[in-house]
Amino acid sequence: MSGHAGAADQKGLMDATYALHRHFYDLTRKFYLLGRDRLIRELAPPPGGTVLEVGCGTARNLIVAAKRWPNARFHGFDISEAMLDTARKSVAKHGLSDKITLAQGDAGAFDVSTLFGLNQVDRVFMSYTLSMIPPWKEAIALGAKALAPGGSLHIVDFGQYERLPGFAKRFHFKELNAFHVYPRADLRAVVEAIAAEQGLTASFRPALRGYTWSAGLTRPA
Predict the structure, then answer these.
(1) Cα–Cα distance measured from residue 53 to residue 1, given in angstroms and rounded to the nearest whole number
(2) Which of 54, 80, 165, 215 could, after both became Cys, cross-link 14 (CB 3.0–4.6 A)?
(3) Is residue 111 a part of any domain in this protein?
(4) How many folded domains does the chain comprise?
């Protein structure tokens, strides 16, 4: 899908960046993508519910979530076909092809009906993806819009290291930027603004001295 300026360029950039790196992405990321499993534990989808991951990458999170919440159905999309190729193989290897549906899509202009034939979803989550996609504000708004009554959106990403030494932030952010990762300093403000626009309840929680930020949106039942 392409729904915003630069979507094709972003797809090409991600494909080029991860054409090789996708093969050892999960091994390297587990050491510093902290908070992902906590997010999955907190999803708690209703029995028979639907869960969507925006920017699913290699499907690592979807696989963990599908095993933890076996009564739900999972969907994920990514702009990178290179990542999706790895994701499809991994899902099949774990015997979860009947529980996890994958698609290629643009986080800045997605529609769950077009991608998956769904009218709405019970849970949406975004794990260390907003720092990688230029239309990250649009992605949050669209994810929130897709929520069913009583549904919730869950976010975890890099924070601003606000209670860590300045050199740690400078060093790590330089490393992240080299992989086109840009932690979003105004994440809380954006989430709260979207909550106000859509009549949702917002939450925000820093952890590990600001290394990670978690945020959420909940639609009234």
Answers:
(1) 16
(2) 80
(3) yes
(4) 1
| Residue 21 neighbours by CB under 8 Å, 6+ apart | none
Cα separation, 4 vs 73, in Å, equals 29
Q: pLDDT by residue for the chain (221 residues), tens digit each?
A: 334 445 555 544 454 444 444 434 444 444 456 899 999 999 999 999 999 999 999 999 999 999 999 999 999 999 999 999 999 999 999 999 999 999 999 999 999 999 999 999 999 999 999 999 999 999 999 999 999 999 999 999 999 999 899 988 998 899 999 988 999 999 999 999 999 999 999 999 999 999 999 999 999 99
How many C-beta atoms lie closer than 10 Å to residue 33's C-beta? 19
Domain that holds residue 157: 32-217
| pTM to 2 decimal places | 0.86
> By three-state DSSP, how is residue 43 classified?
helix
Question: Is 139 inside any structural domain?
Answer: yes
- CATH code, domain with 173: 3.40.50.150
* Residue ranges in the chain assigned as alpha helix (H): 7-21, 25-29, 36-43, 60-68, 81-93, 112-116, 136-145, 166-178, 187-198
Question: Is residue 198 a part of any domain in this protein?
Answer: yes
What's the rounded Cα separation, in Å, for the pair 114 and 129?
21
Count of CB atoms within 10 A of residue 127's CB?
24
Asked if residue 17 is part of any domain, the answer here is no
Surface-to-core class of residue 204, CB atoms within 10 Å of its CB (0-12 exposed, 13-18 middle, 19+ buried) = middle
